Amino acid sequence: MTTEAELKAAADPQILSDLVLANRILYALGVVDGYGHVSARDPRQPEHFFLSRALAPALVTADDIMAYDLDSSPVEDRGCELYSERFIHGEVFRARGDVHAVVHSHSPTIIPFSISKTPLAPVYHMASFIPPAVPVFEIREVAGMTDLLIRTKALGQALARTLGNGPVALMRGHGNVVVGTNLKYAVSRAYYTEVNARLQLQARTLDGPLTFLDPHESAKFNGGKGVNPERAWDMWVRSVQGL
Ligand SMILES: [Zn+2]
User: Fold this and answer.
1) DSSP 214
2) Which of 3, 14, 36, 132 could form a disulfide with 32 if both were Cys (CB 3.0 to 4.6 A apart)?
3) How large is the C-alpha radius of gyration of the chain?
4) 148-174 as b/e, with b when 16 or more CB fall inside 10 Å?
């Protein structure tokens, strides 16, 4: 298969329709605004992934979804603008065979944790997938002074190294990347990472020391994957169908 139409025709149609919904849900939940993006890889075609052309997430339709290879190159040149940070997706998919969905956002409440010495840590059960200290990608260490965007494969690879085998990495002064075995997990995790950051900031105004989830507690949620997102997903889908 070489054309975008062939790749889309061969994909599980549920994945393509869920990808459109994921864009709208992330906007409705306040994880993305006019910027940020979400991608999906079809287990049937693991050397490719699907991602919209450069567009505000709430405006993405099925026709805007393009097919990319793992070099983050579009399978077909539509002559349209592409997300400059598409390399986040290609390099995370390349590094992580277990990952089938990637969310990149500038979700606001995680930003303070990306520029401080306070690690983002799991505050409550809905964010049990968060490790005891979320890693932070410092782009200066690999590229010096930049505009902070992941504009190359090399930067995408460096970010993927910081992510490691985890579910989330922060990007200093920029945003975060969240991954999942499917779109439902990735979207849910992106949302609850944002909520967890909000709660952690609130908790720091109260008397400490704070008690975070223990890894033994986190492991009891779905084998460490976190709360199953199915129920919330069905509600989120319903809530965006009028958008
Ligand atoms: Zn970004």
Assistant:
1) P
2) 36
3) 17
4) bbbebbebbbbbbebbeeebbbbbbeb
Instruction: Tokens 């026709």: give the residue.
Output: 63
Q: Give me the tens of pLDDT residue by residue for the chain, a chain 243 residues long.
A: 679 999 999 999 999 999 999 999 999 999 999 999 999 998 899 999 999 999 999 999 999 999 999 999 999 999 999 999 999 999 999 999 999 999 999 999 999 999 999 999 999 999 999 999 999 999 999 999 999 999 999 999 999 999 999 999 999 999 999 999 999 999 999 999 999 999 999 999 999 899 999 999 999 998 889 899 999 999 999 999 865
Helix (H) or strand (E) holding 136: strand 136-137
CA dihedral for 8, 189, 32, 136, sign (positive or negative): negative
* 8 A C-beta contact, residue 98 and residue 48: no
3-class DSSP assignment, residue 193:
helix
Integer Cα distance of 188 and 93 in angstroms: 19
Q: Is the pTM of this model over 0.85?
A: yes
Distance 211 CA to ligand 1 centre (A): 31
CA 188 – CA 226 distance, rounded (Å): 10
Rounded Cα–Cα distance for residues 38 and 215 (Å): 28
Query: 68 — phi, psi (to 5°)?
Result: -125, 150
- d(CA 175, ligand 1 centre) in Å: 6
Distance 133 CA to ligand 1 centre (A): 21
40: β partners: 50, 101
| Catalytic-labelled residue, pool 85, 138, 141, 217 | 85
Tokens of 104: 């990149």
